[in-house]
Amino acid sequence: MQIPSRIAVVVGSTRPARICPVVAAWAQAELQAGSPLHYELLDLAEVDLPLLDEPLKAALQDYRHEHTRAWSRLVLSFDGFLFVFPQYNWGYPAVLKNALDYLYVEWRDKPASVFTYGTRGGHKGAQQLLTVLNGLHMAVLENHVEAVITDDDVDPDWQLTDPAATLRPALPQLRRVDEDFLGILTDRQ
Length: 189
Description:
Elements: E1 6-11, H1 20-32, E2 38-43, H2 44-47, H3 66-76, E3 80-86, H4 94-101, E4 111-118, H5 123-135, E5 139-140, E6 145-148, H6 163-167, H7 171-188
Parallel strand pairs: 1-2, 1-3, 3-4, 4-5, 4-6
């Protein structure tokens, strides 16, 4: 019997009072419902990498710090990645770029997609990250998710008042992402 493929749903923001964990948890739960794949949350706040401090380029895999070796092992343990993040000033969070830049070989050929959100869905941030994922030679999926979250969707503490209702319009996109992951990972078995 084959072990189900593990997909990391990466919480790509570490901002205090962030909503990214709620968005990522919703995505993880919706993806897991009915999928043979195993979706797991991976919070970059918990990984807690310092600003890139390796003296040599990642492609050499000559890691000097235990936090880099631990990050490498964790990334290698997953079969694919869904990067969830808010759009910041038409870009994506620096913590996500930092986490990606720590490694190189570990990302190669791993299927990846993005789930962005913002007042207009996060398309510009998604495009920037997709360029980076292609540069890392990841197998970028055809489908991605963009969720619109406006000021009307949050309370005075900037938390989502009704995550399920706010994110529900993104569900068809999310289902297509699951189909893409399943298709590429099934083809590889």
